[in-house]
Specification:
There is one protein chain. With about 375 residues, this protein is an alpha+beta fold. It is built from eleven helices and twelve strands. The protein folds into two domains: about 200 residues, Ribosomal Protein S5, domain 2 (2-Layer Sandwich); about 170 residues, Alpha-Beta Plaits, CATH 3.30.70. The strands form two sheets. Strands 1, 2, 3, 4, 5, 6, 7 and 12 form an eight-stranded mixed β-sheet that branches. It has a four-stranded antiparallel β-sheet with strand order 9-10-8-11. Strand 9 and strand 10 form a beta hairpin. The chain starts with a helix and ends with a strand. The relative contact order is 0.17.
């Protein structure tokens, strides 16, 4: 089914490109979304995260131009944007700002860019906490790399795309989303140290599946409490006299917790304990301990719900429904929170019954129809053809 979906997207893009530009595209690039297994709101605290790139992506069919103009048709929005690389200006179409932001960041780094024309589409659900924005950024960076022939360096591209999101789009995201979209590895999750950007490929437990559960609720991330949470964490780090909360151990936190105000204590407890859980989860995966991984995912959700306060009634309902199904080893919200998706680790033999059961449970309890995605770990941003 996944292969058929990919083939369908590629065909759709090729046909749309030919219709719009009168020829077949010269190249096809893709960049995946991601689901974070554990390690939430730790990335901008220089901590540890454990995401995997998923088999849902943003795709761009393109052809280089001889000038410095970029023309892109977005099929999912039925809109087109045109901009000049020599005179980038902000506009009204949000999706187009990600493209311009990437162009701006690449040029700020000293890269010489050529223009291109393309058609883009994707199947990463938008606003669901699966990093559709990072997928769009990395696909755009890959398109510029094809058109301009500069070396593809995943970590550098991730950093530049993060700059685009932080400084052009205005979202204070950490590095996780861009780095996993740039450097994902098929069949593996990546343990990422968000301070050093060192990555370690971690195998998914055998006979298990990762299932993403879309609550059907959305949040506008730039307008949400994300930036507020980041500021709160930075304030607590200053109180500890360290650059970021990843530099505080659980023992140090417990020794000084009484000196913090209640809000700061809760925020810090989540981040510091989540870093410990994430590293333990990677160790559990390396030894094939799916049960322990599931327990850590459960604990992560409770910490996000109680201490970081970024869950929602819909996310809590979905997680409860998931945990009630046979074969579920663990479940938690994933992404920034306030809406979007949960993720579950499920015994492979139980996936079909689990998917049907959790969907029925959630619809019965919430009145909303959920989407259920059984996801495979895939590779990072690439030129497909």
């Amino acid at each position: 089914m996944a292969e058929a979906r990919v083939t369908g997207i590629a065909r759709r893009l090729s046909e749309a490109f030919e219709e719009r530009f009168g020829a077949l595209p010269a190249a096809l690039v893709r960049a995946p979304g991601r689901v974070n297994l554990i390690g939430e709101h730790t990335d901008y605290n220089d901590g540890f995260v454990l995401p995997m790139a998923i088999d849902r992506a943003v795709w761009i069919a393109l052809r280089p131009r001889s000038d410095r103009t970029v023309v892109v048709r977005a099929l999912d929005y039925q809109q087109q944007t045109t901009f000049q690389l020599a005179a980038l200006e902000r506009g009204r179409e949000v999706w187009a700002e990600y493209l311009k932001g990437v162009a701006w960041a690449l040029q700020q780094s000293g890269l010489e860019l050529r223009g291109w024309e393309g058609v883009l589409a994707g199947d990463v659900p938008r606003g669901a906490g699966l990093s559709s924005s990072a997928a769009l950024e990395l696909a755009t960076a890959r398109a510029f790399q094809v058109a301009s022939a500069f070396p593809w360096e995943p970590v550098r591209m991730a950093r530049l795309c993060q700059q685009a999101e932080n400084r052009w789009v205005g979202m204070a995201s950490g590095i996780m989303d861009q780095l996993i979209s740039a450097g994902g590895r098929q069949g593996y999750a990546l343990l990422i140290d968000c301070h050093s950007l060192a990555t370690t490929a971690v195998p998914l437990p055998t006979a298990t599946a990762v299932v993403v559960l879309d609550t059907g609720t959305r949040r506008g991330l730039v307008d949400s409490a994300y930036n507020e949470r980041r500021a709160q964490c930075e304030e607590v780090a200053r109180r500890f006299g360290v650059p970021a909360l990843r530099d505080v151990t659980l023992e140090e936190f417990e020794a000084q917790a009484a000196e913090l105000d209640e809000l700061g204590r809760k925020r810090a407890r989540h981040v510091i304990s989540e870093n410990a859980r994430t590293r333990e989860a990677a160790a559990a995966m390396k030894r094939g301990d799916a049960a322990r991984l599931g327990e850590l995912m459960n604990a992560s959700h409770e910490s996000l719900r109680k201490d970081f306060e970024v869950s929602s009634s819909a996310l809590d309902a979905m997680v409860a429904c998931a945990r009630a199904q046979a074969g579920c080893l663990g479940a938690r919200m994933t992404g920034a929170g306030f809406g979007g998706c949960a993720v579950a680790l499920v015994q492979e033999s139980a996936v079909a019954d689990f998917s049907a059961g959790v969907a029925a449970c959630y619809q019965r309890n919430s009145g909303r129809h959920p989407e259920v995605y059984v996801c495979r770990a895939t590779s990072g941003a690439a030129v497909i053809g």
